[in-house]
Request: fold
Amino acid sequence: MTTQLEGKTALVTGAGRGIGRAICIALAREGAAVAAVARTRDEIESVAAEIRAAGGRAIALVADVTKDDQILASVDAARKELGSVDILVNNAGDNILGRIEEQDPEVWWQQIVVGLRAPYLYSRAVIPAMREKKWGRIINISSVNGKKGAELCSAYCTAKHGVIGFTRALALEVAKSNITVNAVCPGYVRTSLTDRTMSQRTDMFGTTREAMEQMALKTIPQGVVMTPEEIAPSVIFLASEAAARITGEAMNVSAGLVMH
Reply:
């Protein structure tokens, strides 16, 4: 473990698997105390246990980010156990494919609640303490689909575009309090969410999984599907003092898929 983030407390949503899990472990490796937040207790307990086994500090907090009271309770629990949140990583998100005229409006809207409303509420909850300390980092996990469209993903794209707009507006609002707000925009990453959406596309287009994956790879200049561990370093950088003058940015980590 190193000490780049020693003395800092980080709260990460969607922490049980994939990108969120990798971010938690990377933050702990840099010395941060980590509050891992997700709905599935077994998954976040596993993350916290792995961090503690390596000599770090971590707690597992069960919360449904569609529930306002559970969001506030998780922030309060993190503060009581680890200290006020210095680094917030809004990673929770969902992508349920559907044609606009067929998808249930409630299913569509829930993706906005998870992907956009939750980051707003978490940010709102942690900013007062960050202002008081005159130090804070808010890192929102958007997507390359926050910068372009994706067929059958209107809710997901809406949420991820919204996250970038929220990031830029909030960055201006808190800039004089020495709080930075940035977004990370991953491309194709091997996660359970990517696996599920790939399966949905295979079914909806009546093709094979292999054909869908080959089609996706052809759009990526580096020709690779990334791992969650390849996304985490961008979060560590944005959380560090080295990124103190970077705010309001939407950083692509996409193997060249998106360059704007």
